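$ run holo --ligand "magnesium ion" --emit tokens
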Amino acid sequence: MRASRYLIATQKETPADAEIVSHQLMLRAGMIRKLAAGLYTWLPMGLRTLRKVERIVREEMDKSGAQEVLMPAVQPAELWQESGRWEQYGGELLRMNDRHGRDFCFGPTHEEVITDLIRNELKSYKELPANFYQIQTKFRDERRPRFGVMRAREFIMKDAYSFHLDGDSLEETYQVMHRTYCNIFDRLGLDYRPVEADSGAIGGSASHEFHVLADSGEDAVIFSTGSNYAANIEKAVALPPQGDRPAPSQDMQEVHTPGQRTIEAVSNYLRLPPEQSVKTLLVKGEEDENGQSGLVALILRGDHNLNEIKAENLPGVAEPLTMATDEEIENAVGCQPGSIGPVKLPVPIIVDRSAAHLADFVCGANRDDYHLTGVNWERDMPLGRVEDLRDVVEGDASPDGKGTLEIRRGIEVGHIFKLGNKYSKAMNATVLDENGKAAILEMGCYGIGVSRIVAAAIEQNHDDKGIIWPQAIAPFEVAIVTLNGHKSPVVAEAGEKLYEQLRQAGYDVLLDDRNDRPGVKFADIELIGIPHRLVVSERGLGAGTLEYKGRTDEEKQDIPVEEALSFLV
Ligand code: ATP
Ligand code: MG
Ligand code: MG
Ligand code: MG
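-- output --
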């Protein structure tokens, strides 16, 4: 590419509304532009990186034996009614009508569509296992779209869905996907951790998230220094030590039951009879629109009439009890109401955590009850505040007894689930088994946030000059800067020659032939984060040299013109 004929839309100023560094740098480096909240255009520079991420994901998925498909972004409501999610999904589902008044949604995920396809296409166990994936645009009407493409409303996801006759086969493919994800994030050059995650929301039996470690991450992950134990915070807080963890099929209820001391304290406080006492403590806080962080939600046993839980039971709270809307629950818990463990229709109470009295509660009182020690609601509820949690968990023994715990912030870039038969059962997706009987399919699903990865990579790789791309996903691998090329035919010619040579050797090269001051060009190339820079100047050519500087090198160095290629390799 010649920079003079390419949209290099760099900006000096840091955009005011961009809070985190990846968002700022993606705007400043001319990678993306905002159209509306959570909607972004990928400019040529950004799209190059996005496509490289896609390519790596695609290659590794293909290698794993998965087959690529492409499903429609717009989905008919009937399928979602069949699975039950038309009612359950809440505010993130963008619903719409066609000209005949029929209901549709813009797909936030594709379990229904793929299950519908497979129930028609696959007939026999002999065709199993099968894994289908796509790289495609999703829409989720996020309550707080932010951080640019990190939490967008329209974004690119790789989603895969596998189909099996039994759990063993599902387990096998699940492990293949786990390895495939590790290969993908290794190739992307990212520092990441696979962690155990809660699968309650989707209803399956196992789930892992892949987190890119970065201080700006919205999630917290905990891992052991002495073993492979790693979990996201929701999982870690509620998990029994590995030894006595219930089998996956067992009642998830136990896993989520808060400690006895907590139940008693909260029940006493709310003056609730034990059978209606606290079922689940929601340990995830999120900022509301006013920037107030940390909604605290209690899910109580049984059905409640909120009017019966008297306001005077919660002194100091002006509007003590409100029935949370589906959307609020979804935002507070990060999952859908009615789907946490086996508790049907949990009745939530959401209380402002600023209510001082909540400080009285110490939740997850002790290790015996499988909670973190001494977590204090007032102080720790917004779990986004890893700094606070660090005091609580860091240095504690790992639940598996090996090593001590560390806590870090993470960006969720991938998520794999064993879905079991949730969708296949609801939608009657079967194949004939060895005995010619219809068998409900077992399913797995596997997501990667392709566009989010671009932002996550920048969070991990930048300095005060700009982005520092891992070579594998740099928009260009090499920049050739010609100094005064518009005035000096020798320089222009040498630049062109080098450009052709490197291109033929397979490099993605940007020839910066713009009629700009050297300082401007250098600053742009550093901001964009191109790993290698070669400068062609009259003075250098006179001495038979080019000037080389790697993106993170302290010093530049001169190299003989004819050695440029061998130097880069
Ligand atoms: P989050 O917890 O960040 O909201 P999620 O758990 O809702 O993500 P999944 O349903 O697991 O997301 O989707 C698979 C992947 O899609 C996620 O791991 C993430 O990388 C990506 N993703 C989800 N929501 C967004 C979004 N709003 N913008 C960009 N990428 C997203
Ligand atoms: Mg989400
Ligand atoms: Mg998540
Ligand atoms: Mg997820």
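-- notes --
DSSP finds 18 helices and 28 strands in the chain.
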